[in-house]
Amino acid sequence: MTAGNNGADTPENDDPFAHLYRSEGGEGGGTASGTGAARQPGVPRTSYNQVRTVGQRQYGSQGPSAYGRQNAHYAAPETLPGGADRTRPAPPVPAPRKSRNGLLIGAVAVVAVVCIGIGVAMLTNSGQSKDDTAGNSGPTAADSVQPSTQPSTKPTPGALPKDDAGALRLEGGATTAKDVPGARSASGSYVGGMNTPGASATWTLNVDTPGQYKLWVGYGVPGKDANLTLTINGQALTRPISLHNFAHAPEGAWDKGWTKSWSLIQLNKGTNTVKLSCENGNQCEVNLDQVWLERP
């Protein structure tokens, strides 16, 4: 080695960082002051720069005290033009919620419009149906209605019962017919065949008040008088109902002999039965067209 680079006296003394873990005045005569004193007397060390304690090395002209200070040339990115110090964008403002009342009103309006549309459509279809059937000359419902064949059990409130004779219960050979014109029933029919012993026509009726009533009988005779036995609620009266030729029809003229007669009878409140029959001793050549009640 040369005089300018004598090298280390031992390998461990050649460590440039040995001063960091050596104690001052330790082995080898080294110092921790970093002043470059010889580690061994008479052996100068000139091959390395002077070693200093961490924090003593100077960079530039700022000196040891400048280590750790903020560099005068340093500037935070936030302070530079276009740096990171940008205003954070505001969060989006949520859209205002629709009012529940508004939604409800809208729904009601939609339902109302639909209902109006349905009503208009129904009225239109109804008008078309009437136009289609206006010229129809076929039979109507009234044309097909037939007279009732059931006896009247309850009169209209305030009115007394009235029925066509054809609606009564017929027995013993009595039957309905239309051969003789002029009967006053709704269908023009009447009850014939009463001249057979045992023939009868029974009327079932209702009254609200018990008491006496006039029983009217519409009938026709062939120009001569007739009579029939009356049975009220199963009890035969001793006096028959007189069916005289009040129309003064000539004998044999059935169509001229339509007239009426009455007899007083006693009825109970509620349902009653009135029977007109041909019994022994009666003159039964008569046709019956109507029966009704009247107050005496």
Task: Write structural notes for this entry.
The radius of gyration is 69 Å and the shape is rod-shaped. It is α+β, with helices and mostly antiparallel strands and 296 residues long. The model is unreliable at 25-37, 61-67 and 132-153 (pLDDT under 50). It has helices at 18-21, 100-134, 141-144; strands at residues 162-164, 169-171, 175-177, 190-192, 200-207, 211-220, 226-232, 235-236, 241-243, 258-267, 270-277, 287-294. The protein is built from three helices and twelve strands.
What attributes does this structure have?
single chain, six-stranded antiparallel sheet, four-stranded antiparallel sheet, 296 residues, alpha+beta
Please summarize what this structure is.
The protein has about 300 residues and is α+β, with helices and mostly antiparallel strands.
The helix content, as a percent range, equals 10-25%
- What does the average pLDDT come to? 74
Query: What's the total count of β strands?
Result: 12
Gyration radius, in Å: 69 Å
* % residues in beta strands: 15-25%
Name the helix and strand elements from N-terminus to C-terminus, one letter apiece.
Answer: HHHEEEEEEEEEEEE
Shape descriptor reads rod-shaped
Coarse structural class: alpha+beta
What is the CA–CA distance across the termini? 173 Å
Give the low-pLDDT segments: 25-37, 61-67, 132-153
Report the total helices.
3
Query: For the report, how would you describe the main beta sheet?
Result: 6 strands, antiparallel
